Amino acid sequence: MKIIRRISVLLLTAVVTVAVHASDTPSAGKVLKMTGTVMVKLPGADEAVPATVGMMIPEGSEITTGDASQLMLKAHDGIVASQEANSTVLVEQLNVSDSGVRNTLLNLKSGNLVSNLDPTKKNFNNYGVRTPKGVAAARGTSFSVGVGTNQSFSVVATADSVTFTTPTGSFNIVAGNITFTPAGGGEPVSMALSEATGANSPIAAQVSAVMDQAVNAISAALTTEGSGLGGDGAVNLISQVVGVASAAEPTKAAQFTTTAVTAATASNSSTAGSASVAAAITTSAASGAGAANAGAVAQAAAAAAPAAQAGAVAAAATAGQPAAATAIAQGVSTAQKGEAATVAAAVTAAVVSSTTATTAQKATAAVSVAAAAATGSGATAAQAGAIAAVVTQVASNAGVTVSNSGMNAAVATAVQTTTGVTTSSANIQAASNTATQSGATATTLTTAAAAVSTANTAVQTVNANVQTVIAPVTTTTTTNPTTQQTTTTTTTTTPITPIDPSVVSPSGGQ
Predict the structure, then answer these.
(1) Which H or E run includes 186?
(2) What is the pLDDT of residues 64-88, one digit of tens each?
(3) Which of 28, 383, 412, 421 has CA atoms 20 to 30 A from the CA of 220?
(4) Is residue 206 a part of any domain in this protein?
């Protein structure tokens, strides 16, 4: 009898042990940064208390932000949620499974929440934001969710894709698109952000605010200690977010670029050690904003980045919008006058590498780039000579013959127009000869080559990690014959396992 009892106790102990190990390990988030008035009601507490930086936020806590207030919450390493003003969030689930999966489910009761998830950690992230209509889930991306006072909602994908799961089905929202409940309710509507910010869009102001929040949130996360966002994953995210925002609002692309590059290259930024982060952001922003805005984007990036990165920024912008090479050369030279020769050489290198332009077109472009760089920098005859020399040499190295007389005349005109210094083709030629003989041209060409190499790395990074700057809404609509409800599926190249709202309890258990 004692043996049977002992065996029973051992079996019961084993069952309890298995049950304990099978359960998820509770975790807690951390307040990384906050402004204004933020209140937190901890689990089991009767009243909310003021939030403080460094405060631990366990599962079951409710966070409320006031007017002009914001809170940055680190749910897990590399998972940062920025809760905007006048928002309420319930931390519904926050734990780590035995297999290492990091589960986070934030219930957005009202307001706006911007989420940034390190894509290099997506294999063990399980993150979602609940709305009144369903759950927006992702593993390694950036997206924004909004819930209005009338229980309306919106989900904006600013990188890769987000899966939205409702009681009737799931669909993917790809980068550059928004899904929202129209005024008066009804089924969710999906559209491109560029359409949502159009003059006739009823949600234009709302989407514009979301774009600002998205760029500001990822920029702030990079300069906040302990966020866990850094390295290639952070370069990937910020490039995508700025590209999507620039495509949605091209006229604000320079503003977005300034914010992002300033943060990404700051001494306290987690991406400060990346030589190509400014160029990567510039490539994405210029591609999204279009040729008409590429010069302003490049100028903004060059002004925000260290001077030594001006050449790489210029080359990267030209790779994104080769048709805007002249404007890019002038814009970057205006921002970094001392780097004008390097900028001119880098832009020329990008222009003459074109596989579609003719030799004559490349020669004409090289002359224009040299004149633009001189114009932007307000060059003296000596500086203009250095610009003419390096551009001519870069073009020549690529097998493009640039007429010295044509080049020198164009640069001379630019110098006289911008500086008031009267010069001539002969003076430019003399200055060019001096620059070459002194070795200045060779030094500049070496610097420019390094800048072009950095820009090429940035472009490759963007092409490899950024699926698209803005993806079209390709839809498949299915109508339920009984309820007449429709489900819209948008195509995506990154499948995500969604969180099913029906199996997630209010306490966060599954």
Answers:
(1) none
(2) 999 999 999 999 999 999 999 999 9
(3) 28
(4) no
Return the amino acid letter for 55: M
Residue 185: pLDDT over 80:
no
Among residues 318, 172, 195, which one has the least CA distance to residue 247? 195
Alpha-carbon distance of 451 to 316, in angstroms, equals 9
pLDDT score at 21: 38
For residues 177 and 287, membership in a common domain is answered with: no
Nearest to 201 by CA among 185, 178, 171: 178
Question: 3-state class of 20 per DSSP?
Answer: helix
* Predicted local confidence at residue 466, as pLDDT: 58
Q: What is the pTM of this model?
A: 0.86
Assess whether 307 and 161 both reside in one domain: no
**Mapping DSSP to helix (H, G, I), strand (E, B) and coil, where does residue 386 land?**
helix
Residue 12 predicted with pLDDT over 50? no
458 and 496 belong to one structural domain = no
SS3 314: helix
Regarding beta strands 102-117 and 79-83, do their DSSP bridges make them parallel or antiparallel, or are they unpaired? antiparallel
C-alpha to C-alpha distance for 161 and 59, rounded to whole angstroms: 26
| Span 95-116, pLDDT tens digits | 988 888 899 999 999 999 999 9
Continuous segment of H or E residues that includes residue 487: strand 486-490
What is each CA distance from 434 to 186, 237, 387, 412, in whole angstroms? 72, 46, 12, 16
Is the same domain home to 182 and 56? yes
* Residue 81: partners with Cβ closer than 8 Å, 6 or more residues away: 72, 73, 75, 89, 106, 113, 114, 115, 116
25 within a domain of the structure (yes/no): no
What is the mean predicted confidence (pLDDT) over 202-207? 93
**Domain that includes residue 197, residue range:** 32-201+487-503
Confidence of residue 23 (pLDDT cuts 50, 70, 90): low
pLDDT score recorded for residue 465: 64
Q: Output the average pLDDT for the chain.
A: 86
Strand 177-180 vs strand 88-96: parallel, antiparallel, or unpaired?
unpaired
Cα–Cα dist 353/118, whole Å? 34
Say what the pLDDT of residue 26 is.
77
* Mean pLDDT on 44-61: 95
> Rounded to whole angstroms, how far apart are CA atoms 383 and 338?
9
Q: What pLDDT was estimated at residue 152?
A: 84
Buried/exposed 189-225: b ≥16 CB within 10 Å, e otherwise = ebbbbbebbeeebebeebbbebbbbbbbbbbbbbbbe
CA angle, 451 then 457 then 459, to 5°: 100
Q: Which pair of tokens denotes residue 510?
A: 């599954």
pLDDT at 308 over 60: yes
Q: Between 302 and 26, where is the model more confident?
A: 302
Q: How far apart are CA 178 and CA 268, in angstroms?
A: 33
Burial classification of residue 313, based on how many CB atoms lie within 10 Å of its CB (0-12 exposed, 13-18 middle, 19 or more buried): buried
Measuring CA to CA, which residue among 423, 442, 278 is closest to residue 345? Answer: 442
Instruction: Write the CB contacts of 209 (distance below 8 Å, at least 6 apart in sequence).
Output: none
